[in-house]
Amino acid sequence: MSVDATHLDEDCRAINSTKCAAFDPKGHYLTPQWYYGSYNTWSINQFFTAWSAAIDAIAKGNPSTINSYAQPADFDSFTAANNHNQASIDVALNNMIIQAPKNPQNAALTAVLKTFKSFTTYDTTKIDTADPPISTLLQIRLEQVLKHLETDIESFLNMAAGGAFSTADIASSAELTKALWPESGAVAHIETSG
Predict the structure, then answer these.
(1) What is the CA radius of gyration of the chain?
(2) Fewer beta carbons within 10 angstroms: which end of the chain, N or C?
(3) Residue 87 phi/psi, 5° resolution?
(4) pLDDT truncated to tens, each residue of the chain (194 aa)?
(5) H or E stretch including 171?
(6) Alpha helices in 26-180 (DSSP H)
(7) How far is residue 157 from each of residues 17, 109, 153, 183, measured CA to CA in Å?
(8) CA distance 78 to 121
(9) pTM of the full structure
(10) How far apart are the C-alpha atoms of 194 and 188, rounded to whole Å?
C-alpha cells in the first residue's frame, strides 16, 4: 500500500473521520520518517476520537458527571487569576485527563493544552445551565486541538514526542468512559474506536 501523505493529513483532521485511513504496518513507506508520521497521525486521530466518544457517552448518560469536572480547583493553571467566575474549557478537559487512565498520551495532551490555550470560557456559577452545555464545549475543544496538531508540525511533533503514540496502546472510549464515570457500570455497549 502506498500512502498519500496529503490525503492522510486532511482526512485525519476531523474526529470520527471515516476517511482517516487505518494504518497499515505492512504498507509501503518511502522512509522511516514517513512511517512514523503516518502512524502517529492515525494514532492521534484515534486518541481524540476515543475521547470524543467517551464525552458523548457520559453526556448522554449523566450530564452532571461532565459538569462536575468543570469545577475549577482553588488554583488551576487554566483559569485566569482575575476572572473568578469564568474558566477556560481547558479546566474541565484537564480535570478529566487527571481522572483518566495514566498514560503518555494523556500527559502529552495536558502539555499541548498549556501551549495551545483555549479562549472559550464558561461561567462557573452556571455550569449546570451552560448554553451550550459543557460537553459540547469539550467536543469543540477536542476538534480544535486535533486540527491544530494536524496543521502545526511543531505541536504535532511535541504531542508525538517520546513515542507517546507509537509505543503504547490508546485507551478505548469504553475504558475512558468507565474511568471518567465509574457509576456507569458496564460500558460494553459503547462503540470503541481504539
Answers:
(1) 17
(2) N
(3) -135, 145
(4) 333 444 444 578 888 877 787 677 777 777 878 778 888 888 999 999 999 999 999 999 999 999 999 887 655 566 655 566 888 899 899 999 998 988 899 999 999 999 999 989 889 889 999 999 999 999 999 999 999 998 899 999 999 988 888 766 788 889 999 999 988 763 443 333 44
(5) none
(6) 32-61, 63-69, 89-99, 104-115, 134-151, 153-160, 173-180
(7) 21, 12, 6, 36
(8) 10
(9) 0.84
(10) 14
- For residue 95, give the amino acid letter: N
Q: Is 190 exposed, middle or buried (0-12, 13-18, 19+ CB in 10 A)?
A: buried
Residues 6+ apart with CB under 8 A from 131: none
Cell, residue 45: 486521530
Q: Is 85 exposed, middle or buried (0-12, 13-18, 19+ CB in 10 A)?
A: exposed
Helix or strand run (H / E) with residue 133: none
